[in-house]
Design goal:
CATH superfamily of the largest domain: q2cbj1_9rhob like domain
Order of helices and strands: EHEHEEHHEEEEEEEEEEEEHH
CATH architecture of the largest domain: Sandwich
Shape: globular
Bound molecules: nickel (II) ion
Oligomer: single chain
CATH topology of the largest domain: Jelly Rolls
Largest sheet: 9 strands, antiparallel
Number of strands: 16
Helix content: 25-40%
Amino acid sequence: MLLHVPEILSRDELAHLRGALDAADWTDGRETVGTLGAQVKRNEQLPDASPLRAELGRMVLAALARNPLFFSAALPLKTLPPRFNRYHGGGEYGFHVDGAMMRSGDGHVRSDVSCTLFLSDPGDYEGGELVISDTYGEHEVKLPAGDLILYPSSSLHRVMPVTRGARIASFFWVQSMVRDDAGRRMLFEMDGAIERLRASGADEGAVLQLTGIYHNLLRRWADS
Ligand code: NI
C-alpha cells in the first residue's frame, strides 16, 4: 500500500527542522549502505552518530506518535530512528531494495514499511521524485514539505536526480505489528470505513460489531 499522510509536522516543527538541517554538517550517504547500494547512491546524510540526528529524529517520532492516520496504516511495532538525507547537484539514488533486517541497538528491526518525510518545498528543487515500482507499475512521488509517503519495503524504488536546488528529507523503516502488506491494507481500509460509519450516525450495534471484527482480525494477524 502506498499512502500519502499529509501534515505530519506543524509549521513550527518544520521550520525548526529545516533551520537545523540547513546549518548541519552532511557526510557521504554511502556510509549506511552495502556494496550494491553504494554503486547507485549519490547523496548526503547526517552521520548516524550525530547528536543532531538523534534530536531531530525524536521530533519526527513524536510527530508520528500523535498521527492517527499513520498509526492506522503502519500499525507500528518498532520504528527505526529516523535518518536525514540531502540530494543536490545531480545527486540521485538508483533502483534498489531496502535491506530486510536493520540493526538497531543489540537487535534487529524488520523493514515492513518504508517512509519518506519530505522536508523541502517541491518548488525549491527540480527532479528528486521518489519512484516506487510495484505490481501496478511505477509511481512518482513528490510531496509538500511536512508530508509523508508510506510504502511497502518490499518494493523496488529510486530517487531521480536533483538538477536544481536541494531536496532534504527524513527516511525511516517500521516493523509493523502486521507483517503482511495485504492484511495491513485491509485493516486500514476497515478502520477508515468504521470511522466514517460512526461519524455518519450509522446503527450503533452494527458499528460495534464491525469494531469487534476489526480487533479480532488484528488479534489473529498481529505480532507483538
Ligand atoms: Ni531505499
